[in-house]
Amino acid sequence: MGYLSESVVERVKNLTVPSIPRQLLLAVILAIIGAVLFGPQPSLDYTFQQVGNIFLDLLKMIVVPIAFFSITSSIMHLGTERLRHLSARFLLLMVGMSLVGFSMGFVFMSAVPIAPFSVSHITVDVKSISAPTVLEFIRGCIPVNPFQALASGNMLQIITLSLFIGLAAKNSSVASGFSAAQSICIRVANLVMYTAPFGVFCLLYPVVANNLAGIVMAYLQMTLVLIAGVLLYMLLVCLPLLYVCKQAPVRYFRTIILQDVIGAIAGGSMTYLAPRIANLKENTVLDHDVIDFFVPLTAVLTRMGSTICVGIYTVFAASIFNISLSWEQIVICAFLTIIALMCAPGIIGGTLMDCAIIWAAIGIPIEAIAYIAGIDYIMDVLRTILNIQGGEIITACMNRFSTTTVLKERM
């Protein structure tokens, strides 16, 4: 038994993360092929629904713990001292670029007539949320009973609780404990994601069988909107920022774009960190201290492409459940997008888990994730190009304001 336990543990540790997004895409393809060949299968509806709901319940199980421990752990490790070393320019630039990204994704997707996408076979409790005043909103964010906030999944109160605990904790052992808890949650979340291909197939098959054209068109719309959003973001945000910060925009852009694409295909900003740093040092005039400091930092804290993608996903999710979002909910969603993506842990399909956290706060059913998971593999490669590039643009901008003396005050 001891040997068996060790063997199982080793298998869990060595799970191949990149295979899951491909399996999700395969699940969508199989659902489409099966629906075309065999059509609706009423005798299997109960089985499809129960298997799909098992996946959704497992997903809901981990959303609150991953949000609480990840955000708290991130704040603890960042700390008040490190926050002081991050200049106001950096924080404003990061937040501003992220808000622009979310706004572009949300507005562009809202402008597209979304294809009919019926999910009437799924029963969810969609709660109507009345618009609070500013003071009511602030009060609503305070977890008067922290345990009730955690039990009910009140995400705004959970985030507030995480911020207070993260800023107040100064003991390294406490931070280590939260890091360990976050690590456990990430492992559980990754295990849950291994059920996703089965859940997505079972939830998607009835939808495809009844409306094949709608789902194919919806996926195509989201992909095209993201491509347009990424290209326009580069043109309207990245290039002007380089010009304002007295960099040669076209030359700098030509230096980084190939590395951005290769990095996206290779697995992301953190996976392809060393070649990017080497490329900037060899082919740009940026201060090496600036590169060493801000490239790793932005790889963790900034995800501009993902903000566009969350905006797209949010509009799509709201539309398939016929939810009209108020402007207050949209504002909350925008700022929660920044917080969630800053604290995004290494979870398979991390942006999907971020969406679960964000949507829980504004009343969009988490069930919508099942209808997005299949296309997320393609969307991930596209958004990662901008995720990587956003950090390099911020690095170039901060080179304009930072000095070697300031950068020696390391985190």
Strand fraction band?
Answer: under 5%
Uncertain runs are 1-18, 403-411
SSE class: mainly alpha
H and E string: HHHHHHHHHHHHHHHHHH
DSSP summary: helix tally: 18
Rounded mean pLDDT score: 78
Percent helix, as a range, is: over 70%
Dominant shape: globular
How many beta strands in the DSSP annotation?
Answer: 0
Question: Any idea what the radius of gyration is?
Answer: 22 Å
N-to-C CA distance = 45 Å
| Biggest sheet overview | none
Explained architecture:
- By secondary structure, this protein is an all-alpha fold.
- The protein is 76% helix and 0% strand.
- The chain contains 18 helices and no strands.
- It has helices spanning 2-13, 19-38, 45-85, 88-110, 134-141, 146-152, 155-168, 172-193, 196-210, 212-244, 249-266, 273-283, 288-301, 304-320, 327-342, 350-362, 376-401, 404-407.
- The longest helix is centred in the N-terminal third of the chain and has 41 residues, at 45-85.
- The chain is globular and about 65 Å long.
- The protein starts with a helix and ends with a helix.
